[in-house]
Please model this.
Amino acid sequence: MADTVLLGTGSALPHQRVTNADLARRLDTSDEWIVERTGIRARHIAPPGMVTSDLAVEAASRALEAAGLAPSAIDLIVVATATPDQTFPATATKVQARLGITHGAAFDVHAVCSGFIYALTVADALLKTGAHKRALVIGAELFSRILDWDDRTTAVLFGDGAGAAILESRERPDGEGGSGILAATIRSDGRHGPLLQVDGGPGSTGTVGKLRMAGREVFRHAVTNLAQVMEETVARAGLSFADIDWVVPHQANFRIIEATARKLGLAMDRIIVTVDEHANTSAASVPLALDTAIRDGRIRKGDLCLLEAMGGGFTWGAILLRI
Ligand code: UT7
Model:
């Protein structure tokens, strides 16, 4: 039996930090409203000319360094993004080329804010079949490019960033308990697509489009779906919430994180929160939070982590990961 184990993580943020007060200078909003309704205080925004693969490569390089590996050790690259550099080729193949890798396979996964959970699930499955040995899984987004900067109901919520993880397939010695990814669950329900979408695309308008969201309804679905998929994932591994050291949630809104924790009876001091500094970075949010907490020493080797996310589609999912 093979395990998919985590070897290292990395992340990257654009240099420019934009505060709520900065946004309030050009939008009818306030620091008080944004902090009270979302917990967000700042976000990082990419400069003109930067592309998604720039942040993806930076995060990947840090993850490779943490894993002590050269790029040539990687034979699978999966990039989760809803804001690719171009409609095609895939951002993953651009990352592959920029890392100097010419073997294996690279492709993108599109599940918006749940993208990293989907990408990890796909990579885990490919590693467990033995088809690939070592995967670089990245969530990278430039949501600033698809925001309507005149719409205060969405412009204040999102930011840019990238996070990466290196995973390896390892044979499990007889009689030993599992390590690495213990359970992965992905779900979707396309009926809710219009509640969180971009109003354009290459096959419809021929434009990129801007993000549109029915925030209150998305919020309601998020808490229900996340609580369900977290319970299901923990149960499938034969464990309970008491066994979990850390929850690494999608960072969309502090109130969603809090409401989900309350529904599941989870203490807030076991939950990694970065939404205050990163805002919602879509597919980058979970790996950014994971890397932040590993680097600041909160998440340690051997800890049991529950990763979760929910986003456009709707898509949602959770992963139970022994660090
Ligand atoms: O990552 C994918 C998943 N996405 C999410 O999970 C986002 C889910 N939704 C949310 O996080 C919240 O619904 C929001 C943060 C988007 C909105 O918070 P809310 O508490 O649901 O507020 P609301 O939409 O009910 O709006 C309340 C009021 C409205 O004014 P009226 O109609 O009551 O007069 C809005 O127009 O707040 C107003 N408002 C704002 N006021 C100041 C909306 N945006 C702003 C703003 N500044 N930026």
